[in-house]
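A student in our group prepared the protein record below, which I am reviewing. I have pasted the whole thing underneath without changing anything:
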Amino acid sequence: MAKSVDDFNKKRLRSSNITVVISIALVLFLLGLMGLILINAQKYSDYIKEQLVVNAYFDENYDAKDSVKIAKLEAETFKKVQTLAPVKKATYISRSMAAQEAKKSMGIDSDALFEENIFPSSVEIALKPEYVDPAKIDEAIKAIKAVPGIVDVKNDSTLMVDVYNNLSRILKWILGFSILFLVLAVVLINNSIRLKIFSKRFIIKTMQLVGAKRRFILKPFIIEAVILGAIGALIGLLALFGVWYYFTNQIGSAFVQDNQQYFWLVLLVIGVGIFITVLSTIIATWRFLKSNVDDLYYS
């Protein structure tokens, strides 16, 4: 009879642990998914901002006999532009390249209908994402204009402001949802742990009544919480990266290739899983350690 009772208790304990692990894994899967979305959204936001270019123009009025000297000056100016703090990437566009681009955009194939080298040479500049901020774009343009040899700087500031504001709004929504999922993770994991500890409330109180210290009673529960939290986090991460790998293969894009960010995301998910599980275990166990025996029947 005793053996059947022990077997029953072991099965119930195993079932309880499995339920807790699955709950933790599901919650951390959703939390990790929001983290992946946030990382990739930030990267693609920066990528889009870098496509908003500024054009810096050289002087188009010079004598043909000075072309060698002018080419040397433009090369020096281009190097100075590349070293500016706001500049992410700079591309030199010669007069002939500008003419070819103009022909292409206007659909003109014949050189006879299009005068050669009527456009000035220029530098196409992609700014660093932080300088696309409307509060810093003027500072970046002033720095570019101050470079000797640059006579004019043009950019579509209205487009930049609109794109920046829209991207910032999207990122704020994603960040908001991520925080919401973090709160839900805390609540759901805490509820699962409380139910598990609730089923052991009589064991906790019995150990206390026979003289066991609170630290001694807490220790096995904390160790178990760390193990359950780590297992749940690992299962959640395996499911997360499995789904993400399938998704990126289906759309043909690898998204962010920064392994360091994925590494920090993994640590965050594991840390959150263990921390919430341990904290919930301590709070739930401490509650029964402070309660009276009669309260155990009505908790």
